[in-house]
């Protein structure tokens, strides 16, 4: 088969040629957009799931849906070492620029940009870096609004002002936050507080977040009412029909078919995880001699896919761990079976250590995004099949 025509695209956040199995979430978001357009109150949205299930792809798709309705949008990727104020300023600046062209009162837009600039400048005002960084907002800073230095107060004021601007134009604003679990505690609390105020005001501004499975727990720990602030959607592996569609539809556009046994073998190998579907699909295409693609093609191509996953998907994450953290993960892998959550007490028994002595390794892995706290007293891998990979390394 011609590798140039290979339609499959495994990549971080890269949209697959066929976005299969996510119609439910896309349709639900369309309802949110339409309700807000009609002045109805709506909750912000949170997507959760393991790495490789397509959260970022879906987040980008939802952003495209908002853009198609002429909404202002901005997107950030949270990082553990960065406060929210600076990246949010840039994202909201982008969103307001998109709707400003439709606003009838340029002075009102400039006034908001002045408030936004003051909000942004607080990111470095207390760190002696004011002259080193400017937010790139072409308006004079306006004092006395969203610049108190308390992120929770400032964010409420800023987002209410932004929503008022959007309401004038008759559209909405959506701020998309990827890796939302990496926000600091103060920033999470500020977002929850702002979303609470926005929902009470029926404001045309929503936050759409995506993160690891423990993100709802992070939000709940910040504000007890967070479960009522957001509409939660768990993004999981694809059902068999959707996984087949993700393979068949792109191939059909290239006049290529799969045998049923090939689809069986591909689903068994990929286990329905969208990233794996693309990886095995790409490798199988490249080794297939002609259409239809067969189970033998899958068998021959699988080692190439597994090698690429071992290096780029699993290995790159494993290399970030310290020796103590790797020992902890290997114990998890031995106990996890099919990669399900593991009791931390069992890991301590497996390693012959006291639970408290393992806390630094566990906390380090959580901060690096390699494991997550599934529930009190248990942890799981953030990457599907990571336990299987580690067990394979030990053989």
Low-confidence stretches: none
Q: How much is the average pLDDT?
A: 92
Number of helices: 16
Sheet with most strands: strand arrangement: 2-3-4-1-5
Strand content: 5-15%
CATH superfamily of the largest domain: P-loop containing nucleotide triphosphate hydrolases
CATH class category name of the largest domain: Alpha Beta
The CATH architecture of the largest domain can be given as 3-Layer(aba) Sandwich
Q: Tell me the CATH topology of the largest domain.
A: Rossmann fold
Shape: globular
Write the H/E string, N to C: HEHEHHHEHEHHEHHHHHEHHEEH
Q: Percent of residues in helical segments?
A: 40-55%
Secondary structure tally: strands: 8
Compute the separation of the termini in Å: 34 Å
**The biggest beta sheet, please?**
5 strands, parallel
| Radius of gyration computed on alpha carbons | 23 Å
- Structural domain count: 3
Task: Kindly name the structural category.
Answer: alpha/beta
Please tag this protein with its features.
Helicase, Ruva Protein, domain 3, Arc Repressor Mutant, subunit A, 3 domains, five-stranded parallel beta sheet, three-stranded antiparallel beta sheet, 10% strand, globular
Give the helix/strand layout:
Blueprint: H1 23-37, E1 44-48, H2 55-68, E2 72-77, H3 85-100, H4 106-125, H5 151-169, E3 173-178, H6 185-200, E4 205-211, H7 215-222, H8 226-229, E5 230-234, H9 240-252, H10 260-270, H11 274-287, H12 295-318, H13 323-336, E6 342-343, H14 344-351, H15 359-367, E7 371-375, E8 378-381, H16 386-394
Parallel strand pairs: 1-4, 1-5, 2-3, 3-4
Antiparallel strand pairs: 6-8, 7-8
Helix pairs in contact: 1-2, 3-4, 3-5, 4-5, 5-6, 10-11, 10-12, 11-12, 13-14, 13-16
């Amino acid at each position: 088969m011609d590798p140039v025509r290979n339609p499959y695209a495994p990549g971080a956040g890269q949209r697959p040629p066929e976005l299969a199995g996510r119609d439910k979430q896309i349709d639900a978001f369309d309802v949110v957009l339409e309700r807000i357009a009609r002045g109805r109150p709506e909750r912000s949205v949170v997507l959760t799931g393991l790495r490789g299930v397509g959260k970022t792809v879906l987040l980008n798709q939802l952003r495209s849906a908002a853009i198609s309705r002429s909404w202002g949008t901005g997107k950030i990727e949270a990082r553990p070492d960065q406060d929210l104020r600076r990246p949010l300023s840039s994202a909201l600046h982008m969103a307001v620029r998109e709707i400003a062209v439709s606003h009838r009162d340029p002075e009102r837009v400039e006034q908001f940009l002045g408030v936004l600039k003051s909000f942004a400048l607080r990111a470095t005002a207390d760190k002696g870096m004011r002259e080193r960084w400017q937010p790139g907002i072409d308006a004079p800073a306006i004092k006395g609004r969203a610049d108190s230095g308390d992120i929770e107060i400032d964010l409420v004021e800023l987002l209410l002002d932004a929503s008022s601007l959007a309401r004038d134009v008759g559209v909405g604003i959506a701020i998309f936050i990827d890796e939302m679990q990496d926000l600091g505690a103060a920033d999470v609390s500020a977002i929850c507080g702002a979303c609470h105020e926005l929902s009470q005001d029926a404001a045309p501004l929503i936050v759409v977040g995506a993160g690891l499975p423990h993100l709802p727990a992070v939000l709940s720990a910040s504000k007890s009412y967070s479960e009522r602030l957001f509409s939660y959607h768990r993004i999981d592996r694809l059902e068999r029909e959707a996984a087949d569609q993700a393979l068949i539809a792109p191939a059909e556009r290239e006049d290529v078919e799969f045998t049923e046994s090939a689809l069986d073998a591909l689903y068994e190998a990929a286990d329905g995880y969208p990233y794996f579907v693309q990886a095995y699909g790409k490798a199988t295409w490249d080794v297939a001699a002609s259409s239809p693609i067969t189970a033998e093609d899958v068998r021959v191509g699988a080692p190439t896919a597994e090698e690429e996953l071992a290096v780029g998907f699993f290995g790159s994450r494993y290399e970030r761990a310290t020796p103590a953290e790797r020992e902890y993960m290997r114990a998890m892998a031995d106990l996890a079976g099919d990669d399900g959550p593991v009791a931390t007490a069992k890991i301590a028994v497996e390693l012959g250590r006291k639970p408290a002595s393992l806390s630094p390794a566990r906390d380090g892995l959580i901060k690096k995004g390699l494991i997550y706290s599934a529930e009190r007293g248990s942890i799981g891998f953030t990457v599907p099949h990571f336990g299987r990979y580690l067990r394979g390394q030990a053989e």
